Amino acid sequence: MSVLIAGAGPVGLITALGLARAGVEVTVLEAEPRIVESPRAAVYHWTVLEPFERLGILADVEARGLAKQDYAFRVFETGETIPYSIGAIADETPYAYNVHLGQHELAAIALEHLERLPGARVSFSARVTDLAHDRGGVTVAAATPDGPLELHAGWLIGADGGRSTVRRALGLSFEGFTWPERFVATNVRHDFDRHGYALATFQIDHVHGAVIVKLDDTGLWRCTYSEDASLPEETVSERLPGHFAVLLPGDQGYELASHAPYKMHQRAADRFRVGRVLLAGDAAHVTNPTGGLGLTSGLFDAFALCEALAAVLLDGADEAVLDAWAEERRRLFLELASPAASELKRLIFSEADPERRREDLEALRRWTSDRDLLRERLRFTAQLRSAPLGMRS
What is the residue-wise DSSP string for 200-262? Predict the structure, then answer.
């Protein structure tokens, strides 16, 4: 039985790759003519690297990305730096590092591997417009440059982003809220190295907070800052030099490679499964990106869904395993990922109360200097993984 996937972002393509490797026939439909390259997620926590290796893509991810262990909190007001390293858990895992790589690069790697497999197809410029589903399967209508297209499959996975057509066609709510700030993600060449910045730096300030991470060995960095969302989005580029004048250290120039403004939300669909339709990634849940927990949660959606759906399709597992997947993924997002991302956003970008900031900094100094506390914090993303749900051997 075949599977349709709406969305050729990293979650959609990783899900497709996992299913195709298991022997499931899969077709991916993507509205855009190619993989979208605007700056988005760029950090892959150590906990997703072992699944990448099982999918056969880790070597490519590491070759194109930047593997690193060092982090630092930097207090903008005082210049204090509070460093720590993922190396603290090197005795627990061979993957005691993160990888920095634009999410479009991850999607491109997954696509390259997917195109080598039989029974896998990706159609770009194919925008899902509607769907119908019953106990026998799913019929999807799509708009293409050559006219309307209709496809039928046993199952449909909506991985088509926060504005998901699949979720809306199902009539599902998307409860939560939108932050009053806008994030602006920039890819910029600037010599942060010379000024002692860690490869991943969280700059703490309620006005000039930022997340600054090195993306590759060419000097390209991601610098993400926030601004009032009531300011006109169309004039973001006009305000950008003013932000860089404060955020970029030293007086040397910079080269702006790309930038993208986006709204931030904390939302989740009321259900992740309706009959033969399943939601994953941003189609199912969205969070502000502080700490990289949005894409991390989406990738864990994908890893677990591949296992569960393959078990149903190939091993005769009861479909109840998919209900278990949907309930677990929603719970982990609402109880762990979303609150953690919100708290980290508060700490880095939003906290204006001096006493609360003082308490925050004391806590950061304590857990970064205490090896046991640090190891506990570094294990957090492991809690976002689902327990084994399927019957694959």
Answer: EEEEE-TTT-EEEEE-STTSEEEEEEEEETTS-GGGHHHHHHHHHHHHS-SS---EEEEEEEE
